[in-house]
Design a protein that fits this description.
Shape: globular
Number of helices: 12
CATH class of the largest domain: Alpha Beta
Oligomer: single chain
Number of strands: 10
Number of domains: 2
Radius of gyration: 23 Å
CATH topology of the largest domain: D-Maltodextrin-Binding Protein, domain 2
Largest sheet: 10 strands, mixed
Strand content: 15-25%
CATH superfamily of the largest domain: Bordetella uptake gene, domain 1
Distance between the termini: 73 Å
CATH architecture of the largest domain: 3-Layer(aba) Sandwich
C-alpha cells in the first residue's frame, strides 16, 4: 500500500513537470525568433525590422532573430500569423497603423487589435506624394490642378486598400474636391518602380521610404503629410503649408501574440526599450532616414487603440472600401 502511494506521488510530480511552461523547463530562446513583417523586402517595415535586430538580439540572450516577409492581402496574413502563433516568445511581428486597424474594420480577419500584446513603438512616418524628377508636377497644388482638369484620370499608387498610403489619397480627394485613379500594390518597392517607369502620375508612400531617391535625384517629393517638416526633408513643405489641411502617415511598432506570458512580455519590452535608447541605434536610424517615435508597449497600445476608435468613426462616415 505504501509502495502504491509512493508511485502515485511520483506520477503526480511527473505530470506537474510536464505541465510546466517551456520557458521554465528550458533555456529561452532555444531556436530563432521570427519577426513577421507585413511588407516586402526593401520596404519601410522591412527596413526597421532588420535594422533593429543587432540591437535587440544581444539583449535577449544572444538570440537569433530572422525576418519573415508576408506582404500579401495588405498585411493581413502577417498580422494573422502573429495573432495565431503560439505565445511562446518565438514569434513576434512588426505592425503599423492604420493597416493593422483598418483590416478588421473592413473585412473578416482572424485577430482583434485589442487582444494583441504590444511591445514597443519605433517609427512615426508621415505620408508623401512622389513623382519622377522630370514630372510636370512640382507641388501638390500642381497635381490637384491637373486632377481638376482630368477627374479620375490621374493614377496614384498605394501599398493597398486601407493602408495609410490609400487613406492619404482619400484625404486629398476630400480636402480638395478632386478624384484620382487609385492603383493598389503589394508594398512600396513596386510603387516606386511604377513611378520611375512612368506608369503612375504619382506614388503615395511614406517620406522615409522615398527620401533617399529624392536626394539621389530620381524622385521628387511634392509634399509631406506630417504636422511639421521632418529634419530629413526640411526643404519640402507640408500639405498644410501648401494650403491643404490634412495629416496622414504611419505609426510603426512591434507586437506579439495574445496571451504572451508576463515574463516574456516584460523581457521583450525591456530589451526593446534598452535597444531603442542606445545612441548607436539613433545613429543607425538617422543613417536609414527612420523618423523615430519611441514609445513603451503601454503607450503604443494606447495610441493604437485610440487610432482604432478614430478609424471606426471614419468608416461610419466614409468607408474606404466598397
Amino acid at each position: 500500500m505504501l509502495r502504491r502511494r509512493s508511485l502515485a506521488i511520483l506520477g503526480m510530480g511527473a505530470t506537474a513537470s510536464a505541465a510546466l511552461p517551456r520557458l521554465a523547463r528550458a533555456a529561452w530562446p532555444e531556436r530563432p525568433i521570427q519577426i513577421v513583417c507585413p511588407g516586402p523586402a526593401g520596404g519601410g517595415m522591412d527596413t526597421y525590422a532588420r535594422a533593429i535586430i543587432p540591437f535587440v538580439a544581444p539583449r535577449l540572450g544572444a538570440a537569433s532573430m530572422v525576418v519573415i516577409n508576408r506582404p500579401n492581402a495588405s498585411g493581413q496574413l502577417a498580422f494573422e500569423s502573429v495573432a495565431l502563433a503560439e505565445p511562446d516568445g518565438y514569434t513576434i511581428g512588426v505592425a503599423q497603423t492604420p493597416n493593422l486597424i483598418t483590416l478588421p474594420i473592413e473585412r473578416q480577419v482572424r485577430y482583434r487589435v485589442q487582444n494583441l500584446t504590444y511591445i514597443a513603438n519605433v517609427v512615426e512616418d508621415p505620408g508623401g506624394l512622389f513623382v519622377r524628377t522630370d514630372s510636370p508636377y512640382r507641388s501638390v497644388g500642381d497635381l490637384v490642378e491637373a486632377a481638376r482638369k482630368q477627374p479620375g484620370r490621374l493614377a496614384i499608387g498605394s501599398a493597398g486598400i486601407g493602408t495609410d498610403d490609400h487613406l492619404l489619397i482619400l484625404a486629398l480627394q476630400e480636402a480638395t474636391g478632386t478624384e484620382y485613379s487609385h492603383v493598389p500594390y503589394s508594398g512600396t518597392p513596386p510603387i516606386i518602380s511604377a513611378v520611375l517607369a512612368g506608369d503612375l502620375a504619382a506614388g503615395s508612400f511614406n517620406v522615409s521610404e522615398g527620401i533617399a531617391l529624392v536626394k539621389q535625384g530620381s524622385l521628387r517629393l511634392l509634399g509631406q503629410a506630417g504636422p511639421q517638416r521632418l529634419d530629413m526633408a526640411r526643404d519640402i513643405p507640408t500639405f498644410r503649408e501648401q494650403g491643404i489641411d490634412m495629416v496622414a502617415g504611419s505609426t510603426r511598432g512591434v507586437i506579439a501574440p495574445p496571451g504572451l506570458p508576463d515574463a516574456l512580455r516584460d523581457r521583450f519590452r525591456t530589451a526593446f526599450a534598452e535597444a531603442l535608447a542606445d545612441p548607436a541605434w539613433h545613429k543607425e536610424a538617422e543613417r536609414l532616414s527612420l523618423p523615430l517615435r519611441i514609445m513603451s508597449g503601454e503607450e503604443q497600445q494606447r495610441v493604437f487603440l485610440e487610432d482604432d476608435r478614430k478609424l471606426r468613426a471614419l468608416w461610419q462616415r466614409r468607408p474606404w472600401r466598397e
